[in-house]
Amino acid sequence: MPEAAAAAPKKFALQEYKTEVHVDWCPGCGDFGILSSIQQALFQLQIPPYKVAMISGIGCSGKTPHYIDTYGLHTLHGRALPVATGAKLANNQLTVVAVGGDGDGYGIGAGYFVNSGRRNVDMTYIVFNNGVYGLTKGQASPTLAKGSKTKSMPEASIQEGVNPIALALGAGYTWIGRGYALDVKNLVSLVVQAISHKGTSFLDVFQTCPVYNDLRTKEWYAGEDIGRTRIRKLDADAKWDPIVKDPASIDEIVEKKGLALRASYETGDSLATGVFYSIQLPTYDEQLAMKVPALKDHPLVDLPLYQRDVDPLFAELA
Ligand SMILES: Cc1ncc(C[n+]2csc(CCOP(=O)(O)OP(=O)(O)O)c2C)c(N)n1
Ligand code: SF4
Q1: Which of 24, 26, 208 should be mutated for ligand 2, with most atoms under 8 A from CB?
Q2: Secondary structure of the chain in the HEC alphabet?
């Protein structure tokens, strides 16, 4: 008798990455495109939903884990990255994706944004960048350019906006990209690449907030006033190569970071999207496993708790 064929691995349906929770974003919100892109990317990668942890901060964008049928945690304002770091270190077998707004990530969470870049924990961070604090009614966020006045502001901003790609290059993120919420096809591809990258990947996403930001509208990105899209795809240039081939070569690193930095400063009528920079370096979790060999075979959550009798210490201090 022929041997029984091995059971085919279960194929997850796109629907299995969606919850039944009512999505309460405003009609036309760019968040819908980002949500759909994350669900499609997880589906394309066929990552079992029970092996994914979605971690968010606070804001309209912070609701994202409610709508994705994986493990999820809606944490404090600006704290998605430290919580995501903890989740990955506790269970290195999880695919960890942190999400949040530009106020969440580049404002109140700015310190975590910088320090997560230098650690290179194997996880992904996706920022919904709309130039405003959506949930709290449209105040200027850290990315709103100087001189801009949105619908909800009495006067134009007198502060410079930050450049998230430049910050990420300086902080040490090992994969840096940018997408556009309403170009879902491209965004799915970028989320797939970001999640597949070994190390901390950072994806800034231009997101439209039609309720509070009447400057960066879908018509503006489409360039209806200038007759061509303002979104420039970096890979449309056949010569664009963001990948560092020799991670030991400081010259190559500086050259590639320089090109990415230049592209990140394109403004006005040409906004670069795509992969800006990519390098393969040892991850924090890998380095930890070198120090604690038991982590190679078992995630921390499966290891017995370390116990120590502290009574002698207290007795000594008494
Ligand atoms: C410690 C703390 N400070 C302030 C707030 C109020 N707050 C809630 S959401 C938010 C801003 C959200 O903006 P953003 O991060 O850009 O996300 P969006 O709503 O645009 O997706 C603020 C200031 C809070 N919840 N917690
Ligand atoms: S306020 Fe803006 S970001 Fe928030 S749900 Fe509405 S459109 Fe989206």
Answers
A1: 26
A2: CCCCCCCCCCCCCHHHHECCCCCCCCCCCCHHHHHHHHHHHHHHHCCCHHHEEEEECCCCHHHHHHHECCEEEECCCCCHHHHHHHHHHHCCCCEEEEEEEHHHHHHHCHHHHHHHHHHCCCCEEEEEECCEECCCCCEECCCCCCCCCCCCCCCCCCCCCCCHHHHHHHHCCCEEEEEECCCHHHHHHHHHHHHHCCCCEEEEEECCCCCCCCCCCHHHHHCCCCCCCCEEEHHHCCCCCCECCCCCCHHHHHHHHHHHHHHHCCCCCCEEEEEEEECCCCCHHHHHHHHCCHHHHCCHHHCCCCCCCCHHHHHHHC
Query: Please, which pLDDT band fits residue 1 given cuts at 50, 70 and 90?
Result: very low
Q: Is the CB of 141 under 6 A from ligand 1?
A: yes
Q: pLDDT tens digits for 242-263?
A: 999 999 999 999 999 999 999 9
Task: Tell me the pLDDT tens digit for each residue of 147-183.
Answer: 999 999 999 999 999 999 999 999 999 999 999 999 9
Question: Which among 63, 133, 206 is the best mutation to test ligand 1's pocket, defined by most ligand atoms within 8 Å of the CB?
Answer: 133
Ligand 1 touching residue 175 (CB < 6 A): no
Q: Which residues pair with 139 in a beta bridge?
A: 133
